[in-house]
User: Fold these one by one.
Assistant:
Number 1:
Amino acid sequence: MSGEAISGDAVSGDAVSGDAVSGEQPAKPLPPGEPADPQVTLWTALRHRPPPRFLLSPLPPRAYCFLLSGAFLGLPVLLVLALLIAAGLLLSVLGAGLVLLTGAALLGVPVARIERRRLRLVEPVVLPDPHRAMRVRDAGVRVWVRIRLRERATWRELGYAVLLGVVFAPAGIGVTLLLALAGILVATPVLVWALAPEPVMVLPGQAIPDPLAAVPFSAAGVVGFVVVAYLAGLLAGAQVKTAWFLLAPREEPLSRRVLELTRSRVRLADAFEAERRRIERDLHDGAQQQLVALTMTLGLAELELGDGSPAAAALLARGRGEARHALEQLRELVRGIHPRVLTDHGVAAAVTEVALRHPVPVAVDIDLPRRLPDAVETTAYFTVTEALANAARHSGASHVTVVGRLERERLRLVITDDGCGGADPDAGTGLSGLADRLAILRGRLVVSSPVGGPTELRVEVPCAA
Amino acid sequence: MLRIVLAEDAVLLRAGLVELLTRGGHEVRAAVGDADALARAVDAERPDVVITDVRMPPGFRDEGLRAALELRARHDRLPVLVLSQYVATAYATQLLGGGSAPGGPGGVAGLGYLLKDRVGEVAEFLDALCRVAGGGTVIDPEVVRVLLVQQTRGRPLSRLTPREREVLALMAQGLNNQAIAHRLTVTEASVVKHSGNIFMKLELDPAEGNRRVLAVLAHLRGEGSPGRTDADT
């Protein structure tokens, strides 16, 4: 049991293992975060499958389809883009030019949408839509255009559309032509036989005399098929990679998300703290004042009544007593929520106040050069009160010391009691709750409580001014 | 009849206090809602006694208390009764701090620190006010109780009988033997006997008036007390 430690470090990776990839549920999701990029299926197959198995798999034909359809899409896109830009620039003197240029800028959006579907020909990984979910019908055209133009994804998609037209479409056409050539080479003997006596020339000026002489060309054609299959695989894989790079939602680096989560947690804790203070203030300024006013009125009534009616005087005195009792309870309540003296005088005074009311003698030695941030003060205060409560409740201690210092911009508190020890941080919510509160401030709680005592709680909270 | 300047930011309480004080036969020269107005009112009215809430605008912290201390420094020994919503020995120490240091601003003569609840006991409240105005010291029984609880653990105070503790608490409120006897409905002679026992058990010199309160307070806050309250300044 000795040396049990709870430490809360605000930045812990496992806090964010939940995922934020939006969109459809992919069979094989694109993992967020760049270091472990998924492998392109085509390339993996190229590299690891034995050639016969790769060549006989459906992958090469799929790659051909992918590249050829890419060419059919890419060239018109390039044409439309060029026309839109040219016309837009020409008409830019009129207002219409701007509309055309906007259209050009947004052209990538529908193209990318088609591309994300087309990619499934060769790649089972589904690319989620990087755009903010929004329908033109709901948002209105103006809003839709404005938001899309502001999204980086839109511009990446435009870049992809240009690449598709300039690089991948011609490459696709090239592969298709090579594929056709290989086909023709393989079929040379048949052609020679079928077209005889017409001369068939594969190499210029050298007519192939008979089908048998064309067999080497067939062999070259088969080799050509193999080469084209691999070439198409490489090329389609490159396009998949490019699409992943440009068309997928950009995941923020994990560290940034952790930072954001940490910040939001701090904001949340601050909000709770502010709420506690508000409640305290409301009770203080509202209910408490009302009750004081009530006791005052009752007191005045008593005075007015004089010795006239002893029965009425007794009732008034009882009423006043009850009002006072309510005040005392309210005061206790406020102390538990957020003590006034902590706000007014800081940790040392507030802890001293608690120590004075504590059933076990407490020596307080807190010496701080200045007031600390609100959150630190509150957390420190409640840590000490919880530790003191534990000491009184469980340990049978006869003496407790609380020492607090500010060292190198860290508040260090040590709470020691001479009780029986054996405090278990995992039992009950008190200590672990404290560790949670401290973790928000990047603080630490170390509990050392060997059976037989003594119990020592060490608290460290950084408090940059 | 006392001329009083009152500072209390809660309108309800301010009105109630004005009514209470007026019925008690005193004259409220000014009733204000913040510390600055308090200073101006005191400068203008030169009252016999000031009653102020600890917590006041604009900061809602201890503006009233600090204003009172400043006023005492400016107007020699201006009697001040401080009302607080809750007991904080830190406040009591802050207010009476001058008392333990000889030559502090006016000592503790004419100082009072009471919980707001006490105003319900109208007669006693007015009585305490008069004692403060007359240069006496009044400490809320709750402060004394808290200090007593702390002190009774293995200390001479634990040897005090319950009756003696009652007498001690009333002494801290600045009551003389006669008033204590009246409050406890015992004879003055037995109060004298009790206080003699108290001072003997606490190993204090019997003293009169404020010095008696001071002696008790100094002892309660005194050396080696585990809960010293001066760590916050």
Number 2:
Amino acid sequence: MSEIIQQEQQHVRLPEGSIGKQTTTLNLGPTHPATHGVFQNILEVDGERIVSAEQTVGYIHRAFEKIAERRPLYQITPLTDRLNYCSAPINNMGWHLTCEKLLGVKTPKRVDYLRVIIMELARISDHLICNSIVGVDTGAFTGFLYVMQYRELIYEIYEEICGSRLTTNIGRIGGFERDFTNTAFEKIERFLKEYPVVLKEFETLFQRNRIFMERTMGTGAIAADRALNYGFTGPNLRATGVDYDVRVTSPYSSYEDFDFEIPVGTTGDNYDRWLVRNQEMWQSLRIIEQAYRKVQEFKGEEATIYHADVPEYYLPKKEDVYTKMEALIWHFKIIMGEIDMPKGEVYQAVEGGNGEVGYYLISDGGRAPFRLHFRRPCFIYYQAFSEISEGAMLSDAIITLSSLNLIAGEMDA
Amino acid sequence: MVLTNEYITQRLTEKFGESISNVEEPYGLLTFEVPKDLNLKVMQFLQDDPDLAFRFLTDLCGVHYPDQKGRELAVVYHLHNMAENVRIRMKVFTDVQQPDVFTATSLYQSANWQERETYDFYGINFVGHPNLKRILNVEEMDYFPLRKEYPLEDQTRIDKDDEMFGRGGSI
């Protein structure tokens, strides 16, 4: 028998060292339904156990940082959509906040509250996808389809406000491009009324589900000190027990006016990550409710404010451009790039869907940034995947991949 | 004890003297420069000192200043003391001809890919890095695209006939 094998092998040119090798090399990705994004993992597996993993990223790198060096500030907003596309509005708002910090623009309270509503909706839509995908990977497809209806509702709210759904380009420097319509408020109200019921049901489906618990508990765990060393932020860090949340430590957009808790886990495994995200959705609902109430409390003139009074940076209404001299001048100045920004360096962080999204902007006084760097949380914490998954089963590594909430767009920038 | 920018500056100058230069506070964030052969020592000090305790590397990126002779490339570290919630920014400048900077991977695991990214875009050679190769761009690339000498493609050029993307051609 072995003679036959040897004979056969004479005609097959195997890579050197492959006959004595005890492990198998397995390519997971770049396009694989289980990776939920375009990135590759080269796994060395011994049976079903992972011996080592090497990640390759960059498949959808679009050189945003380079493109941004040629664009005026307001044209960079659409680039930020495409980082974490599951929670694009948070990135947009983060970018506006960065610009506002650089330009010294102070936003009115109503704008802040409207922004908070949008950001928390985005957080829910991000966590909802991530958690339900963890469900799909453990074999429960129903939850995914069920909550998807409510992501649709969130997208309808976006659509009502800015006209688009996934890559939102929502808001402008200083506020919003238009006020929220009544339909938008009605939809937010509907969401606040209906979603808790659905989330409760979704939670019941998973939280104490025996199969789900056994699949996720103790897998993909990372200790707090390792997580900090790896630069984890967001839900993944909080699942290890560190209560770091940018919304609380360095509040932006008037987050200090809201009453909410930071859920934390203990073990940092897939189950805890799921629980933290789930709790965060409840907290987000709380914040949206408060913000919605606060927005409703504005009366008279105040209730119509949706942007700061900064004609140098905020594009005037189109009908004003056609009828008023001043609006026309500002429109011309902004579009033609007549207004230079101040020199300086700014770092602004916001709590994104999966961690601290940071914008480091260096301005040399020109029209476009001299340098813009995005701190993308996914890119930073994905490095830990090989450490987390070493020694794990292949099937657990798949769950780890989805519970880390890796978004290829954010990773590759 | 409140960790103020003055206190951090004072502690750093006590320890490293003249090496800490260009201390600024743009938008309230303490920014300073250290010589490139001292970057690890300063970071180690910032990490180990019980009062300072900057143990979280938030961000690491490169910057290219083509007009500064002899110090064209910069590596910018954003460090964070999470307990006190204080951020600082540390800069290291290097010559573009020999862009060697010591790697921070021994202090922060998170520096690994961020340094690879910086190498990928700026060609900064992180001495001692365990796996310094390109990360986002293709490995065959022979230049460092985020350096200022590589302009973005001019959208108005007409020598490229690229009908599918709305440039040139007959449409």
Number 3:
Amino acid sequence: MKIQEVIDELKSYDGQPVKIMEVCGTHTSSIFKNGIRSMISPKIKLISGPGCPVCVTSAAYIDRLTEFSLKEDHCVLTFGDMMKVKGSSMSLTEAKAAGGKVKILYSPLMALAEAREHKNIQYLFAAVGFETTAPIYALMMEEMKQKNITNLKLLTSVKTIIPALSYICEREKNIDAFLSPGHVSVITGADSYRKLAEKYKKPFVIAGFEGEHILAAVYEIMRQLKTGRYEVKNMYATAVKEKGNEKARALLSEYFEAGDDFWRGIGIIENSALRLKKEYEMFDGGSRIEGINEEMPKGCKCTDVILGRKNPAECPLFKTVCTPLHAIGPCMVSSEGACGIWYQNS
Amino acid sequence: MCVAIPGKVIEIRGDYARVNVMDNITDVNIKLVDAGIGDYVLIHAGCAIEVISGEMAEDILSLFSELQEDRYEDPGSD
């Protein structure tokens, strides 16, 4: 089948309006970069989901990081995306400007050399992310154990996507299908969506990140909807296996256990956290934060954006007072947040 | 945050491999995968998270031929 035939069919669709949620921020970016919306019927709506871990991290978590960075001989290690996210009073960028020690790393594994080199400094790694990143934290702890590194801890806010999708399916009945996140699926496997597809009777199609991948996945979803099917289809088979990366999953089971977690803009989602097991609490830098109940800024529609009810342009703050340089809501902060992506591309 | 890029393994040294990513050579942890020299791996945050079966272009070609096969098998489609 030629790609033009796929585009022609998707473009000429004139049936019932269809809403497809792309869960992953990288898919949202790719949809813009490849002009996917211009290649499909306006009756097929592509909406963003909760797939930006930075955007759903609580302000209380950021507060722990900023407080730590401001202590003498303490240093926070983090991915760059986290720098601009506001806590209740400041972001890591602002803490750094106020004299805090914050260092951006590309990989959690780089933290090991940093800690071994500066033994007089206490390090805290901002361990955020979904299933894609979590096994790397497990590798990090394995190496900390082997090399007896004691001046490095993890502040974990590791979230899992399947409970979040279940939460959305339960509440947002008008979403017809899901474009499943490609790189989370590399770890969790195609099989991880089967129960959801069966229970909520929705197609879950795993897609890669090229424009062609996304078009093919949308086409597959439309075909399933047309024929009344709700299947898990792996259209990123180059990288995603049925059971995922089993070595990575075994490491996750070794170091982490499920717990309830707070998602900024959503609230508590049951069993959506990967928390360090008790036997590994020596690596924990105080990750347990109880009783978080954070309101979104007044007028901010990030909750509706994360749950697929609105697109960013429907928020009254978008591009008026909320911009990447002066972000009000968390979805504008990260380059993978839905509002940040819409801002850059519209 | 879940961005991952493919690279080709050119040398293995214990738990790490030298990998060619778009003509940049970088060291990547390979403990989560069974990678050999010449394999393509998908790299996230300094770590290979999967061995991929070939170049992405080949994958895309097979994707569309799969859609074609489905179309003929699918009795509901027109």
Number 4:
Amino acid sequence: MTDISKNAGSTNAPGTAVGEPVLGRPAGGGEAFLDVRDLKVHFPTDDGLVKSVDGLSFQLERGKTLGIVGESGSGKSVTSLGIMGLHTAGQYGKRKARISGEIWLNGTELLSADPDHVRKLRGRDMAMIFQDPLSALHPYYTIGQQIVEAYRIHHDVDKKTAKRRAVEMLDRVGIPQPDKRVDSYPHEFSGGMRQRAMIAMSLVNNPELLIADEPTTALDVTVQAQILDLIRDLQKEFGSAVIVITHDLGVVAELADDILVMYGGRCVERGPAEKVFYEPRHPYTWGLLGSMPRLDREQQERLVPVKGSPPSLINLPSGCAFNPRCPYADIPKDDVTRTVRPELTEVGSRHWAACHMSQEQRERIWTEEIAPKL
Amino acid sequence: MSENRENRTGPVGSGETADGEILLKVTGLQKHFPIRSGLLKRQTGAVRAVDGLDFEVRRGETLGVVGESGCGKSTMGRLITRLLEPTGGTVEFEGKDITHLGVGGMRPLRRDVQMIFQDPYSSLNPRHTIGTIVGAPFKLQGVTPEGGVKKEVQRLLEVVGLNPEHYNRYPHEFSGGQRQRIGIARALALKPKLVVADEPVSALDVSIQAQVVNLLDDLQQELGLTYVIIAHDLSVVRHVSDRIAVMYLGKIVELADRNSLYRSPMHPYTKALMSAVPIPDPSRKSAKSERILLQGDVPSPIAPPSGCRFHTRCWKATEVCRTTEPPLLELRPGQRVACHHPENFEDQAPQDTVLLSGAKEAAELVPDAVLEESTSAAVVAERESGTEPGQDEGPDADPDEGSEGSAGGSEGSGEGSGEAVTKE
């Protein structure tokens, strides 16, 4: 599998016009703030190679939000950990994850960069909000100590200044009596407050890239609404680029400017949120939309689920990974869905989908068959 | 839409419509978990998980129960299946009081009342095959189904959409959605009358969730089941339920048929809960104003607030809310609400015109549109008195917005009390 890393340098992601990656190119200058190209994260296991992420590319600008949606095991979280550089640090079954591709953050390529350099960026330029705040916060240290540590690693200040900064951040994320609560332990906080504390910790260094991995899944709806509002307000205030990873299409619709739909470790559809919701061009996206009971519509008679279950990442179906579950797999000729892996093709402005059906076929199926049932 | 649904569930039994006979009746149900501390482990307090529930479940219907975590909905499920011993109140199943039946006394009833659990990973014994798991109810009840246990289990597996040949496989060989189907097959084995499903789909992926929801729906039609479905996801609950109970801190605050509840919720908490659900429609991204944000968290059930338990977070709370607990009254046919100042209905305590200070804080988080619709005398009074200083503020506040707000506010007071019902 060493050839992956060798090839990675020369394979270019669809949609990027650059021929050869320019090392150390200047920041900004029309290039995206975050540019992920052909990212692959593979884990060797006893049962075979798990291709959790297999050729993912996307760009994200400052101040914008990208929503990554997909089912469990589609590679959403692995992608985010890959960007943060957290795979190589840890080990999986005593064997390291195999990562290839390019991740450009503000002009720096992270995968080939010196780990010490990435460590400096992590927490300062890019930060992460995890799904379960109780396991992401250390139970032995107070909330304040943890925020102070995160701040002092990147700033040369004394403890007092850092603590003042921690109180300020707790206040900003809406924790009542922050000067008292800064000395509380995580178990003394409720679920929503812990998530707020974690947001405070990740934002303490004003990161330019914030990755929120299922930030509200563990929370009740009323608390979820508070946290979503908070993330949105903070983004406006700090102008960060945000990646929201979730399985809840409602959450993505609330936050995201762009949406990336993942299936079996690959991107099946990517585009502006409005396009993906109103003119989706991939049967899997249709399936997701049809599976969801909606509060804003009159009662649907029946949900339209995707049949079958998500594929195994060790043994992905050949051709289009979605073909065993796709009701339209037989439409393209010559059994092409089962033999050829579809590439992402442009189906509209800034809107890509990976499907063998022709544009017209998909447009017709969406408007005639799918959309009326939603 | 509702007629369609009744038609679908109608032919299930003989004349079992939504107004059918009462299968389960719960009166004043309580469960207090003792807190013991000190050397002698004396009881020093109690978690009042469920604190006085009254409702009934009719044959053939689906009752949905929603609420935030810690509101006692799962405890309620375990009380009506008698997996927990109630502290007070009564549970009647088919007219028979089952509140304090012992293990032996419950055994014949276990056939009629079954449960589907939330976590398909921990609710199946990993050392037993699927055949053993789904066949266990027959063994426990000493029932021999026609054609033998194995044949019946295979039939059940087929009913829930699994391959009957997987009889000899173990739970780890199945995915989450398939395991949930196994749990459903086990619950259906003895042809129960009532199935209590505690968060049956929340551990599943969206696409699988829809499969299981549809399966539950089909089974209800085919077998004439009665469901109590406990869930925190309001969209799922609306999809599956005929009637919905909203719980808050161990109490039912609103109990109504699905359409009334979603079209014109009467309890402020129901309204807030529904407005908090993220809508999968990006064009609404800017329409943030519709959302009601509740301040803080749910109070502790160890020492719940006095009077109305929601008064600490409610934007309409007045003195009476703090002192007197509102009873669960049928204010509109089929819609029971426990609130002194219900939404979309005339104020139950109009003489109370002074908002609590907590309510004033809460009102700051509530969008103006919601306050304008408000029918509470206290809110109207507060807004009217509040508009004058608002106009004086001039430079700071947007002048247009201020005047609009006050106009809307007085309008609300005019038509609010009388026509609020028809307004929605």
